[in-house]
Amino acid sequence: MPLKVCLVKDIGTLPIRFKNIRIICPIRLLWWVQRESRLMLTVNRLDDDKLNFKELLSDTEDTNIPEAITTLSSVDNAYSMALAAGAKIIQPTLLDFSTLIMA
């Protein structure tokens, strides 16, 4: 019920209108408070998610330098040994093959 300018004949209905306003206003206020509360919970949850994702990204992208150097050295040594072993296996085979062709 919209509020109108009160005329003399409407004075009798003022208590009813004030009662309606007293009922409607707290309901509207409660609705806005609930809406604000839900909005704040959503904002807080999104802030927490943002922080968690930043920590996860940091854990993923950060590198432990001494551990990385140790791993690189061990992988490099394993690669060099594999190449050396492959060269030793292939070397006699190629020599044998070349001697068979010349004979």
Overview of this structure, please?
This protein is mainly alpha-helical. The protein is 83% helix and 0% strand. It is built from 2 helices and no strands. It has helices at 14-61, 65-102. The termini are far apart.
User: Biggest sheet, in brief?
Assistant: none
- From the spread of the alpha carbons, the general shape counts as rod-shaped
Rg over C-alpha atoms, rounded to the nearest angstrom: 41 Å
Quote the average pLDDT. 77
- Proportion of residues in extended strands: under 5%
The arrangement of helices and strands along the chain is HH
Topology:
Elements: H1 14-61, H2 65-102
Question: Can you describe this structure in just a few lines?
Answer:
The protein contains 2 helices and no strands. The chain has 103 residues and is an all-alpha fold. It is rod-shaped, with a radius of gyration of 41 Å.
Notable traits:
mainly alpha, 2 helices, rod-shaped
